[in-house]
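Researcher: Re-running this chain for the archive, since the previous output was lost when a drive failed. Same request as before.
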Amino acid sequence: MVNINNKPWDKLRFHDIEKFLSEADDENFFFEFKSDDEEPKKLIKEISAFANTYGGYILLGVNDDKTIGGCKKWTEQRIHITIHDCITPTPNFDVRKFTSKGTHIFVIKIEEGAMPPYITNRGDIYERVSSGSFPIKDSTRLNQLYQKKKDELVRVKNIVELLPLEIDQKFPQNIFAYLDFGFFVATSDKDAIWRKYNKADLENIANYVRTINKDFSISRVGASYLFSIGDLTAKDDRGNLYPMRAGIHDFMEIFPDGSARGRILLTADPKSYEVDISTFIYYLDMAFKKIYSMFFEGDLYKEFIYAYKYENLRVLKQFIPAYNLISDASNGRKDFGAYLNRHRYKYGNNLIIENNRYPRNDYLLIDRRYFDNLEIKYGQDSLYDELFRSEFTNLGYIDSPFSKGQE
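Model: Regenerated structure tokens:
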């Protein structure tokens, strides 16, 4: 997409806007001028069109004759709320405020969308044609947009999904199931996320991981970092140690754009039928979420637009899910036994989990609207919580052992 006054987005200043307006022709394919009196529905129309075509800029507080009138009604918060509430999915956009002598204007930068079509809350789909925005009526053009979305989802799948493990006679018998998880993140400033990623304090992160498990490794794989936690060896029938196959361990891979993927194994005594599924909570909440937050700290949520989240539980052997509620094993079994009796009294015996009897999750879209619908205040902590929350932590149970009502 073109730059304003040939300046990078983060280097743009008020005088660059003034120079651009003095030299520019009228509105064109990439630029729209909107006064402070512009109605939200008209702003949404232009943003939908830019996102469905090749991107563009809206100069808010600039009149049609290219004079700067400034903004009093429109604020940065109002712009964000309008876009997040009125376009699905949320487009990749950024907003900057420019001020000179008490006059404020906003420039909204809309990127060409990777997940079209971008639909307004009125159900309309627009595209940019010459210097205007028009509804798309042609079925061929609509099919092109939907195909572009399909192609992007294939790319997302290749990023976040892991190949399933190969199961044969040498496969460790203490592994009952494993959870694959991942999410693809879209941000308004990829360069800022990259810079944060490249400045991550790996030594500090390693010191934290060491408090979780002394057996760990941090590896560079291409442009991403791979965090492996736990022993990577197994014992054969004679008790000899040998390296396990690739992928048979607990790990998370973090990509420079903020995307991530990983795997968590559910293990138990091969002769047992109860498997502790609080492992999910331990690794996702205590280990992987913390590691991820140490990479990006408080910056990701400011640039975050949306994420496609994925998780898939693969069951290898039937089992009954259990919880190790507290560190003392004997008390933990006692507490869980009491909970289980209450649960059975209310709902009957718990089901054994097998391949065709557990919930299957597909991609979940997380954006600002997602937080609003769940009445969750959006922020740094809530974003990390949702990215690393699993639908499988209550696997097999209607009431969670961690609910207050279970005390």
